[in-house]
Amino acid sequence: MLNKICIEDNIQFKTSVEVLNECFGKNYKGFQKAGCYLGGDMFVWFPKLALKMDGQYKAQSKTKPWINVLSDDGKTLEMIAETDDFDRERILKRSGIIFTFAKCEPKEGYRYIGTFIMAVEECTDLRFIYRRIDTVIDFEELYNYQVPENEEDQERHAKQLSKSQLYRIAKERGSEKPKMSERTVATWGRDKYVKELAKTRADGICELCKEPAPFVASDGKPFLETHHIKWLSRGGSDTIENCVALCPNCHRKMHYCENVEDIKTLMKIAKYITV
Length: 275
Ligand SMILES: [Zn+2]
Ligand SMILES: [Zn+2]
Hints:
There is one protein chain. The chain has eight helices and 14 strands. Helices cover 26% and strands 23% of the residues. A hairpin with a 5-residue loop joins β7 (66-70) and β8. It is of the alpha+beta class and 275 residues long. It has two domains: 4-141, PUA domain-like; 192-270, Orthogonal Bundle (DNA Binding (I), subunit A). Bound molecules: zinc ion (ZN) (2 copies). The site of one zinc ion (ZN) has 8 residues, from α7.
């Protein structure tokens, strides 16, 4: 069994059975259908792509009343029906991720061309549109994953996932009505006057990037946020010498990057109150 496959690999499988057995651990002897579910809402699809001849698309075989057209950039796959003589509901049921192994030429085998999802809002009665969301399948990740309980571990886990796996888990976990959880947040006392003084010193200009505040708030003042150079949670003081006014981008940067040069620059600025 393969561990991973990506579209650049260009691996050809002679038949759809070979794809299911070698990639997805099945043990089929024969398989004739155009696709199958893998459990959950994962689907493997084996379309035969339409051939472009004299600027027109032609089906590889005339057994179905539609053609499958892959865009030149490979990111969109369209299933265009000529008549409505097919089970539309069955196609719409494929609402999860669709691993697509296509026969691009009559003499070729099936190749992985990407993982797609149906763009339901864009579909019409005779036209189904699929958008590519991933170009790799990590087979191990697909079956052996566990969502950690702890939120910090979840954050780390989410960052390591492939796009399609992330899509799968996010879709399953997302909720229309998020639950409210009560928690007490401990906050450090921040003096309003210290804060205001830092903003006055900045005078509408971010003290780090020197760009004007991004917008004027409803109180008519340029919007800047105050930041403690040495964080209060790390024992920093709530004094003007430790407080600067930053645009939201720079403020985030100070919390996520902790760049030593930035800290030095801000410490110099905070020392002086000049008008
Ligand atoms: Zn800034
Ligand atoms: Zn801050």
